[in-house]
Amino acid sequence: MREVVLPVVNTVAAWRREARALAAAGVPPEAVLWSVGQGTRDLFADGAGGPDGTGALPRTPEYFRQEEGGGGIRVSKTALDTIESALCHSDPERFARGYRLVLRLSRGAVAWGDRSDADMLTVLRHAKAVGRDIHKMHAFVRFREVPTEGARRAFAAWFEPEHPCVERGTPFFARRFGDMDWVIATPGVTARFEAGRLRFEETRAEMRPPEDATEELWRTYYASIFNPARVMVKAMCAEMPKKYWKNLPEAELIPDLVRGAEARVRGMAETAPAETAAPRVDKVRARTAALLAEAAPEDALGHLRRDLSACARCGICARATAPVPGEGPAGAPLMIVGEQPGDHEDLAGRPFVGPAGAVFDEAARAAGLDRGAAYITNAVKGFKYAPRGKRRIHQRPDAGEVTRCRWWLDLERDLVRPRLILAMGSTALASLTGSGQGILSRRGRAETLADGTPVLPAVHPAYLLRLPDRAQAAAERARFEADVARAVALARAAA
Amino acid sequence: MAKRTLAEKLSILSDAAKYDASCASSGGDRRDARDGKGLGSSGGSGICHAYAPDGRCISLLKILMTNFCIYDCAYCINRASSRVERARFSVEEVVNLTVEFYRRNYIEGLFLSSGIIRSPDDTMADMVRIARTLREQERFRGYIHLKTIPAASQELLDEAGRWADRLSINVEMPTERSLSEYAPEKSASGIRKAMADVRLRREASREGPSHRGKRPARFAPAGQSTQVIVGADASSDRTILTQSSTLYASYGLSRVYYSAFSPIPDPAKALPLKPPPLVREHRLYQADWLLRFYGFGVEEIGGASGMLDLEVDPKTAWALEHRERFPVDVNRASREELLRVPGFGTKTVGRLLSARRRGLVRYEHLKAMGAVMKKAQPFISAGGWSPRGLLDDARLRARFAPQPEQMALF
């Protein structure tokens, strides 16, 4: 039987070294007796520290990798990291189990992550327990400021973790509190961070730093943020188990807070709603109303935009961000009507700014159209969609919705009085002419509305984006651009 | 009014802030202070530094800058007509409290909200100044969550997103109608527009792929969230969840928080006298998870009334109503089917699928994979297990619902 006594500080690194040596020597797991030494550190004086032998332990991945290749052990990085985490558990069997498992993993006798294997399951559970303990250490360490002569502020804490996980858990504090010196002392090992350097040593005695003034403010905060109307002591204790309470300054308040909660809630229930509100509230209300009142619109299109923003003629806009009004000057010779705003248009509150808008803009540029001189709008002003997780899937507005929204399109036509309307897509065409059928045969030839305004049908630019066949897409795009160019020319000619 | 001490202000302004449920401090930019030139780290999983006896975690210093407010929202303790005590922090006071609390490892960062004083722009400007001072003067690298004010200017929103990890705007009510009833100064479309603005700015700020191939947002890197008050108006759970699914789809929200309306001192007359059961809030969160991670649609959750079953969790309730889809064979079923089994979480399903590649999954393996077998048992078949008549048992629901308490014999 071999006896291996690991040091209190740097235990895991020593285990790794020993395990590698034992494996190389072909020592079977049942022939090794592992323990953590009490005051036997000098046995390992040659290698008890980090790479520089000082006890400093940079736990970087490079360090693992350097050590890995040598022995007869080959395990994945994840496996080694998890096993090493489980080695920070308090179970005395952990070193033997870890050695057994790395040997079996190297031989391929067990697959990593196979929870039907007893050793594997225990190691995974221990690693999880250690992870939780470390997480609780990150949460529940409470620093107190201590006097120092140095330039950096200094803080200290006494903490009692369930497992010996200080070395694994404290690099977090070095990353977080890099600009101050601190000490975290625990019953086994003490972590010291001074001038940017983290080191570990055996704890000689319990060291509780004296209370500092900020602690009282923290207790004030803790008591005030508690809502007495929803006491759930079990939920609190599940996440902040009582074993940690003795080192938490706020925990001493808990019994009184719980005891007093019921009376506080009763007090609130008995306070009838006030008949007299706070003094001067009417004045405040009036001033707020005046402050939030929007300026009156300057022109008729402005009025239309304001009225549209409150539209509830159909249910579409209640689920969209807001109705998207048309854009452009009154008296624009060319009016362009699309189907409905899409995801981008809805977010930006402007028509044709998404992918379909980009296709249109390109066609407009090619036709020499200044977008700002035309009036661009949609047959339906709200974005109709179905929510799918984090995305919105476009849905076609139905005939009723198109009809109800025509009210706004008619008002826009009345105010803008365009010489020609470019109707993009069947919804726009249906809204304007009463029928959206047969758009592919009707496009490019002007039709006349009841009031004499000519309408030029074209496909919707979004249609071009959906065509899978590249040759067809190119042909359709050329056709679309020709239609836009014709609309621009016709509108100019009519001017 | 006598000048208040810092402790008095802290007491008033944290008391006023406790009705905001959010305390998340996870996600976003990875930052730390390894260089020794700053304070704090963030970007990993969040840390809850303490728990109050109400079971809620304390992760951030959650305070109002001031609880003076010119708005008069019926559900809010700080509404203009409330007779609550008022206080106001200076910029320096908030900055110092945050830094000193952070150095003692009490908190992950700051969650700053505020009543609206003078005007939305004035208030937002002060809040932005606090965030900027923390970042620039104190080199604070911890987490900052700013509550944004929908009516504030675009420039202030831009700056808020530059300093803060997360921005949030509360929708407050499940419907537009309730909002205008309870919060006359707020506008539902104004709130939606502000959320749309945040999403557009986040998308515009994504530059260059990260090492994981995702492009991180520089603007509000931990995203945006919102909160809705449950039980103050008569909206059903389905109405509430429909709004949530709309918000998740539209504005890429990280979270929708549900806050069961809680009695407040000096309540307004418009409020109901009785708060909703807290379990309703819990069921809403469970349903929210089903929507986001388990492939459920809003229309599938909740019974004919549109309310969630308070006795049984929503997934079990769904399974009890759809017994024809069970038992699910754990060795054959698709991921989608497995995700609908009560007692199976996303992690369990992941482990199950990878274990299937190694061989037959037996009943006794499932517990080790993290399944809650008491729940899953009647709904699955596995190597060595069939539920037989269990699934059709009329008393199946009684297995999950809390036992009726027998009156004491006396």
In short:
In chain A, 44% of the residues lie in helices and 13% in strands. With 495 residues, chain A is α/β, with parallel strands linked by helices.
Helix and strand topology:
The complex is a heterodimer of chains A (495) and B (410).
Chain A: E1 2-6, H1 11-24, E2 32-36, H2 61-68, H3 77-86, H4 94-107, H5 118-140, E3 144-146, E4 154-158, H6 166-169, H7 171-176, E5 181-185, E6 189-194, E7 197-202, H8 214-225, H9 233-239, H10 254-270, H11 281-292, H12 300-309, H13 316-319, E8 334-338, H14 343-348, H15 355-366, E9 375-378, E10 385-388, E11 391-394, H16 399-416, E12 420-424, H17 426-433, H18 439-442, E13 447-448, E14 454-458, H19 461-466, H20 470-494
Parallel strand pairs in A: 1-2, 4-5, 8-9, 8-12, 12-14
Antiparallel strand pairs in A: 3-4, 5-6, 6-7, 10-11, 13-14
Helix pairs in contact in A: 3-5, 12-16, 15-20, 16-17
Chain B: H1 6-15, E1 50-51, E2 57-58, E3 60-64, H2 91-103, E4 109-113, H3 120-136, E5 143-147, H4 154-163, E6 166-168, H5 176-182, H6 188-204, E7 224-230, H7 237-251, E8 255-260, H8 278-293, H9 314-321, E9 328-329, H10 335-339, H11 346-356, H12 363-368, H13 373-376, E10 380-381, H14 396-400
Parallel strand pairs in B: 3-4, 4-5, 5-6, 6-7, 7-8, 9-10
Antiparallel strand pairs in B: 1-2
Low-confidence stretches of chain B: none
Helix share bin of chain B: 25-40%
| CATH C-level label of the largest domain in chain A | Alpha Beta
Q: Per CATH, what is the topology of the domain at 6-205 in chain B?
A: TIM Barrel
| Name of the CATH first level of the domain at 6-205 in chain B | Alpha Beta
Termini gap of chain B: 58 Å
Which descriptor suits the 3D outline of chain B?
A: globular
Note the overall shape of chain A: elongated
Written description of the protein model:
Chain A: Keywords: 4Fe-4S, DNA damage, DNA repair, Hydrolase, Iron, Iron-sulfur, Metal-binding. Chain A: It holds the Pfam family DUF4130. Chain A: One of its GO terms (biological process) is DNA repair. The complex is a heterodimer of chains A (495) and B (410). Chain A has 495 residues and is an alpha/beta fold. Helix content of chain A is 44%, strand content 13%. Chain A has four domains: 2-138, no CATH class; 141-202, no CATH class; 220-269, no CATH class; 300-494, Uracil-DNA Glycosylase, subunit E, CATH 3.40.470.10. Chain A has 20 helices and 14 strands. In chain A, the strands form four sheets. In chain A, strands 3-4-5-6-7 form a five-stranded mixed β-sheet, with no helix packed on it. Chain A is elongated, with a radius of gyration of 37 Å. Among the domains of chain B are: 6-205, TIM Barrel (Alpha-Beta Barrel); 322-400, no CATH class. Chain B has helices at residues 6-15, 91-103, 120-136, 154-163, 176-182, 188-204, 237-251, 278-293, 314-321, 335-339, 346-356, 363-368, 373-376, 396-400, and strands at 50-51, 57-58, 60-64, 109-113, 143-147, 166-168, 224-230, 255-260, 328-329, 380-381. In chain B, strands 3-4-5-6-7-8 form a six-stranded parallel β-sheet. In chain B, a hairpin with a 5-residue loop joins strand 1 (50-51) and strand 2. In chain B, helix 3 (120-136) packs parallel to helix 4. Chain B is globular and about 75 Å long. Chains A and B meet through helix 5, helix 7, helix 8, helix 9 and helix 10 of A and helix 1, strand 1, strand 2, helix 2 and helix 6 of B.
